[in-house]
Design a protein that fits this description.
2 domains, 4-stranded antiparallel β-sheet, elongated, disordered C terminus
Length: about 160
């Protein structure tokens, strides 16, 4: 189970993963050693999966975001196409979806020419891809991987998380 203290820790770390344990402890009103131990246990249980740096995509010439709906010809419940798409460096997310399409893929590239090349050569080289429909993002109002941690959330067993 996740208690209120763990929830507060997770909320603070989602805001800034580089927040030192001492600062987390100060904000929560606990000893830094206790917070450090709780964070270690959250990592061991797989609740905290890792830490990342948020990069400025425009500064790194990756300012164009597009969502690509992919229809694939593959056996039901097969994720082979999704795994092949996930291996493409410009792909940020691959979601297996219900409906007419099989996957919703988020990509980030430099410009429309790079997007065209990505779809033609990289997506086109995946034999099971039957068709794609692409939506180009004109502007982003909100983009985050953070989410509210529900009170009383129960951690999933490790085997359920990683299948």
């Amino acid at each position: 189970m996740i208690d209120d203290i763990d929830r507060q820790i997770l909320t603070i770390l989602q805001e800034n993963a580089r927040t030192p344990s001492a600062e987390v402890a100060r904000r929560i009103g606990m000893a830094a050693s206790a917070i450090h131990e709780r964070i270690r246990k959250l990592e061991e249980r797989g609740i905290i999966e890792g830490y990342t740096a948020k990069l400025n995509a425009k500064a790194l010439e990756r300012g164009l975001v597009a969502f690509v709906f992919v229809r694939a010809e593959e056996p039901l419940c097969s994720l082979e196409t999704g795994e092949r798409l996930a291996a493409i460096p410009e792909v940020q997310e691959v979601h297996h979806v219900a409906g007419e399409d099989c996957y919703l893929v988020k990509v980030r590239v430099a410009d429309t020419e790079a997007l065209q090349e990505l779809l033609r050569t990289r997506f086109g080289s995946v034999e099971s891809v039957k068709s794609t429909r692409t939506t180009i993002v004109l502007g982003t109002v909100k983009e985050t991987s953070a989410f509210p941690v529900p009170a009383g959330a129960e951690a999933m067993p490790e085997e359920a998380v990683h299948g």
